[in-house]
Amino acid sequence: KNEVEQSPQNLTAQEGEFITINCSYSVGISALHWLQQHPGGGIVSLFMLSSGKKKHGRLIATINIQEKHSSLHITASHPRDSAVYICAVRANAGNNRKLIWGLGTSLAVNP
Amino acid sequence: NAGVTQTPKFRVLKTGQSMTLLCAQDMNHEYMYWYRQDPGMGLRLIHYSVGEGTTAKGEVPDGYNVSRLKKQNFLLGLESAAPSQTSVYFCASSISYEQYFGPGTRLTVT
Prior knowledge:
The complex is a heterodimer.
Chain A: E1 4-7, E2 10-14, E3 19-25, E4 29-37, E5 43-49, E6 52-56, E7 59-64, E8 69-74, E9 83-91, E10 100-101, E11 105-110
Parallel strand pairs in A: 2-11
Antiparallel strand pairs in A: 1-3, 3-8, 4-5, 4-9, 6-7, 7-8, 9-10, 9-11
Chain B: E1 4-7, E2 10-13, E3 19-25, E4 31-37, E5 44-49, E6 56-57, E7 65-67, E8 73-78, E9 87-94, E10 100-101, E11 105-109
Parallel strand pairs in B: 2-11
Antiparallel strand pairs in B: 1-3, 3-8, 4-5, 4-9, 5-6, 7-8, 9-10, 9-11
């Protein structure tokens, strides 16, 4: 079992829908990252959070440290949001420069 | 600012050939990383560097070597390429904990 699990693996939505992507982890962490990888391959950091909630435009990330769970929400989804969304955690034991990566959630938003 | 750049973008090698992938960053970041990305697997750390002149092994270092002679450059070498090294390679850099990624290099070893 991976230390970082994402669900769903694949998601198809209609433009305008509210989308939720989940990330659960099994290790103690100092921070959790959400990243976006577009078709074409580039990876961009969206959020880094260690508690609570962060918002950037139509994206909202939340984390519950006690439950070892984070969600990434996309409001009013648009076809340009189609990408792979990756969760990664920084464990609070050992070398905390290293990240433990989830396998990603592939999102397709249809017009 | 170009951010993080990688050269080449694509390469096809024959088994046993060698090559070097170059990563360059213009953000004065101390930390640099090399990852590989394979279908069905998360990003895996090959090697990383915490500063000029330093390198360290990641999860999957075998078959790769690295050098960080200048702060802005992090080189990944394959001395004798194998088909198992067919992958997309990403370089990243960071000054705090947020990592900035290059566009990737798609390497095929036949």
